[in-house]
Amino acid sequence: MSNDLRLTIGEIIKRPLFQHAQVVAGHHGLSRPVRWVHVLETADTGQFLNGGELILSTGLGFGEEKEKRLAYLSELIRRKAAGLCIELGRYIPSIPEDMLELANHHQFPLLVFHQPVRFVDITQDLHEHLIHAQMQALRNLEAYSRSLQQLSLQAAGIPKLLQHFQVAVQTQVFYYSPNGSPQFAPVVPHDVAVEMSDLMRSHFSELDSSEAGVRFLSLSATRQLAYQPVMAMGHVLAYVGIVLYERSPDEYLLLTLDNTVSAMAQILMRKMFVEEQALATENRLFDEWIANRSIPEEQVRSLLGITGSGKASAYHMILLSFEKPKNLAEDSLPPHDLTAIFRSLLTRHHFRPFIRCMGHRFYFMLIEQRPLVDSRRTLEIAFRDVKRIMTQILGADVPIWMGVSRAGKRLSDAGRHLAEAEQALAFCQESPSPFFADLGLFRLLFHVPSEPVLKTFISDYLGPLLAYDQTHGSSLVQTLRVYLDSNLSKQEAAEKLFIHRQTLYHRLEKIEEILGKDYTATQNRICLEIAMRAREWLSKEEQH
């Protein structure tokens, strides 16, 4: 199946009606494809051009007037016409040098008819050819789509699909995955493969991964890549492309590329889903950690398929929680599909991911595939992408929270590190950081029994204020919280509470009356802040 169904100017001048035509300028543009043929005599009507038209003219609208003829030719070039055919005669007996120079400068084909021709015969001949070519392209595309569907039903792999694509477009094609080596059809020499791999790795790593559609990369004056990302749920799984040499892509080629990309997305998603189904062992391991059961180091290594007895790589336990929108159907969120996408994304960031989805939570164990220079920064970048994908699915207004443990070394301690992630998640709305290491004093709260120590502590420091709020329907506890969080700045606290400063002064006087004048002293202030956060944490725990 040939994909080159276009008619170029170089091919048009070989047709019988052009036997007396001569190319007088723009010889380097003869490979331009022609989409339609149009008779146009003045620059004023150039607005009706869409690009790719071969223009026929007698020179009636511009004749030998320099200003008009250059304006006419410039307008055709600006409107991306394919070329211009002028019938020499009464209105323009010869092509002036200034038109030749302008056409040559833009590599714009300029043809002349030395004998009178019937424009109607030319348009009829070329239009019949163009319409036939378009119909043939549609038939070829339909046949290609059916063959793709058959290959998908046969569970064909990426190499077979790539070979099928290459046969359809009859040019060099490639498949690039960020997690593997590029594949080419037909196979290219080793040195070319290495050069192309380095180029793709550099170029694709800098792309905006949220943009779909065809893109182009110029390699030289005569060679370019046309490629399209294989996407699922806003995440790029791979890239499929075509190497174009001395040509631009036609609509058939781009539609064939798009159909191929869609088929590959289905194959990759099906493959990832099958892999997720095989991860039941990992899920059971996460269940043990969540239940805070101790598992020996050797057993964890065995269950995770980690061989060797050398020093284990650092790992991180992460909890990601989201609030499911009320208008989202119960079965509209495919957790297994999301897990597969996350696994692909996190692997790209040099982690070996183990993931468990339960309810509105995702549990992650990320083992560093190699020692990371700045693991914290890498985690921040990776989970920024994770949150972007979840936002695309759930909506921009859905809250998403995260808690990150300290880096672990011994796999047998994974349960303890998961508890750290749980604590970081519990305080994520109060802390500007999702990292357990940044919680400071509040790291201690998880280890203090809620009965009776924590509740007694809260009652001793906040009891009088809580009682006053309950009796009078006031909000002194919230006022105190904002005031302390504002580092005792009355102006900042008033702005955050959306009240006048005078109102804040009255509230602070009442707080001082209830708690005593020294409530802002260092020791008392620390205890009050811990008591307020402990109360909020206990309230969340009781809700769960």
UniProtKB/TrEMBL annotation:
Extract the InterPro entries matched here: CdaR-like_regulators, PucR_C-HTH_dom, PucR_C-HTH_sf, PucR_dom
Domain Purine catabolism PurC-like, chain residue ranges per copy: 11-130
Describe the location of the PucR C-terminal helix-turn-helix domain by residue ranges.
Answer: 476-534
Pfam families hit by this protein: HTH_30, PucR
Protein name as annotated: PucR family transcriptional regulator
Q: Which organism is it from?
A: Brevibacillus antibioticus
Which lineage is the organism of this entry classified under, starting from the top rank? Bacteria, Bacillati, Bacillota, Bacilli, Bacillales
